[in-house]
Write a structure and sequence with these properties.
four-stranded antiparallel beta sheet, 429 residues, 17 helices, 12% strand, 12 strands, Alpha-Beta Plaits
């Protein structure tokens, strides 16, 4: 057995070092603004009550409780006349979030308004219980809080890609316009410290291009990959200069087209088909048609045909071997002989990014001063709690590590990072 395991030993050794980093993150914890935590919990409770009233007005029932599924089912399928399309395991019409998302896209304004309010009501409750009240809360779901620091459980396992696993990673992106988008306001630097944060810029697209050695894709990654992709999809807009300079982020010019293209990133990394891409874009509020989405996907497949051919070759290889390996560390993943195309397309990208970020996180743990404490690794980003007088020096060390090139089939790749300092996580978005 040892002879069989020997080729995999380097993965085990890597994961032992990564486990040590995770242990230190658990010990370090992350600072919590306790006053802001209590205030946000109250805001989310008020937000839920406001949405409850909205839902009651919508159905004309002032005793309606949106947390009781039987009442939701009655109002959806009897009073509002929504057509049910899915069932629970018990054979009842489903009232899950997928059903509500379908209502949002139905074109019926009454149904869409009810679905939006109910989804928001559920989200506010989920955010409060999972990310706000859970910090210092009792029971198995509570996050240990000591001396103003939340000690999350960071695991170097639990994902097939090799990325770390932790509840904090799924904290919603910052949106100050609604209470459910303000979780990241809770997390702060220790007194006298700053948070030093870096994020790998457009990592998925860049790695997909270089792993597949698609020269057109690589060329698009020289600069703003989303704007360059938009130029291939919207040549008439590009001809106006709206996808260059400040115009590409101007709401009246190129921003809409760049944002649409940016949200097609998953269609590349997961090889999503038209219906999936259309539903996802509509869910995010983009006014697109199915035929328009189909045309965009056709242009992407034509422009980046080398990349999509590479995915197809990987898919055929998996059908013979049943597995894939991450591109840099060689972590093996069993997919089976009948693996789906999205899993095959995405694994090299996600696992490749995990290989790079994890290796550099380990390297930085050995180079940075002991007082520079890693407090979070959220996918392609890391956050350190650093004494203010050491911040600039630590920033230089991080920049030097990330300036090293990575050997890929497409040549040497340097992944750019956005590096920022602030006293609160929400300031670093």
């Amino acid at each position: 057995m040892q002879a069989d395991l020997q080729p995999e030993l380097h993965v085990y050794q890597h994961d032992r070092r990564l486990a040590s980093v995770c242990r230190e993150m658990i010990r370090n914890g992350i600072g919590v603004d306790l006053a802001r935590k209590e205030a946000l919990s109250k805001e989310l409770a008020e937000r839920r009550e406001e949405l409850r009233c909205t839902l009651r007005d919508a159905v004309g029932d002032h005793n309606f409780e949106p947390g009781k599924l039987e009442q939701v089912r009655t109002h959806l399928f009897k009073n509002l006349g929504v057509r049910f399309t899915a069932f629970t395991k018990g054979g009842l019409p489903s009232t899950d979030n997928k059903t509500l998302e379908g209502m949002r896209l139905s074109g019926n304004q009454e149904h869409a308004a009810f679905a939006e309010a109910l989804l928001r009501w559920r989200l506010a409750g989920k955010i409060n219980s999972t990310y706000v009240d859970a910090v210092g809360g009792e029971g198995g779901r509570g996050i240990y809080l000591h001396a103003g620091r939340a000690h999350y459980n960071w695991k170097p396992f639990g994902t097939v890609s090799g990325r770390l696993s932790c509840r904090l990673q799924s904290a919603p992106r910052y949106d100050k316009s609604v209470p459910e988008g303000r979780v990241r306001e809770l997390y702060v630097a220790a007194p006298g410290n700053v948070l030093l944060y870096y994020d790998v810029a457009q990592a998925e697209m860049r790695l997909a291009a270089y792993l597949s050695n698609d020269r057109a894709f690589i060329a698009a990654c020289q600069g703003d990959v989303h704007a360059n992709n938009a130029k291939a999809i919207f040549p008439q807009i590009a001809a106006k200069g709206w996808l260059d300079g400040d115009a590409k982020k101007d709401k009246t010019r190129g921003k809409k087209f760049r944002d649409i293209t940016k949200n097609f990133g998953f269609a590349i990394s997961y090889c999503a088909e038209t219906d999936t891409a259309y539903i996802t874009l509509r869910r995010k509020g983009f006014d697109v048609t199915r035929s328009g989405v189909d045309l965009i996907l056709s242009k992407l497949h034509s422009t980046y045909r080398t990349y999509f051919r590479w995915v197809g070759e990987n898919h055929a290889r998996v059908h013979k071997t049943g597995h894939m390996r991450s591109p840099f560390l060689g972590r093996i993943r069993w997919l089976g002989w009948y693996a789906g195309l999205p899993d095959v397309a995405n694994y090299p990208i996600q696992s490749g990014i995990a290989d790079i970020v994890n290796r550099r996180t380990i390297e930085l743990s050995e180079l940075l001063p002991a007082a520079c404490r890693l407090v979070a690794q959220v996918h392609d980003s890391c956050m350190y709690d650093v004494p203010r007088h050491l911040a600039n020096g630590c920033q230089t060390i991080i920049s030097d590590v990330w300036s090293k090139s990575i050997d890929t089939p497409g040549g040497s790749l340097i992944l750019p990072i956005d590096l920022k300092q602030g006293e609160r996580w929400s300031e670093l978005e």
